[in-house]
Amino acid sequence: MKTTLDIINHAMQEHPNAALAFSGGSDSIVLMDVIFKRTDHRPVVIYADSGMEHPETLPFIRKVCKRYGASLHVAKPTRSYLEQWQAQGWPMLGKLAAVMWMQKHRDRDFGYRLNVTGCCRNMKILPARKLTKQLGCTLQFTGQRGNQDDALRGMRELKDGSICYIKADKLTVCNPLLGWTDMMIRRYIKQNKLQQHPAKARGAITIGCLYCGGGGQFTNSGFRILRHELPEQWRRFIVDNGAGEIILSIKYDKPLDPVREAVKSLGGISALADAHPWIFDFLRMRPLRGYDK
Prior knowledge:
CATH superfamily of the largest domain: HUPs
Number of strands: 6
CATH class of the largest domain: Alpha Beta
Structural class: alpha/beta
Number of domains: 2
CATH topology of the largest domain: Rossmann fold
Strand content: 5-15%
């Protein structure tokens, strides 16, 4: 805890006007409690609304901010998530896996692209950072946890450290929770009796974007969870947005055109979603077991 508080205090000394990027997830809740309960600093709070969040997320965030007396500002992207996917690529397989998939298929035209990084940046990260600067803040706190949270983030942790200046965004970013483990997060939440996101309290693995396919290759796929917990949003994603055809294309390693022909011969994507909804649960024929961070 001392290290975390030292990082926060040092960052605030250099940047008195700061913002806290708050998603409503466990890491964000812990960081908010640490800052607002254990320091005198009062950064403004910024929530990036991509249009893909759980229905309970924004009401929950408003409730949390009211409890701490925090000033909440909502950032929104300049285009819809479907426009983002059509322009740069669908958020499937995870950031590194999507890059590897694109490299593997660079000589074949599948009729679409995969780009998780672009979706995250343009739908959440960039809007939040733009609003941070518009509010006159020169620093943004995030709950990013480095190597314990994600291998790629761990590499950035080694390269950038807990405080770094993002040249492309002209903004300093501070990650005070670097080094915290899952167990440390859970222990802090339990010991301090912090209220969690309603979906998390129901057992959801993540409360991030509903339509992200980053974990669609694992047995705890977000697609399957979405199908069971929020069937209307699942159908909008699979049928209305056309994600079902993308999922089948990745799963069977076939370009989009023959996949569409096969789907049409079976009665269409809507009929498949009604009769065999589980075929859209995973992005692999045999999903990887578990999610070992």
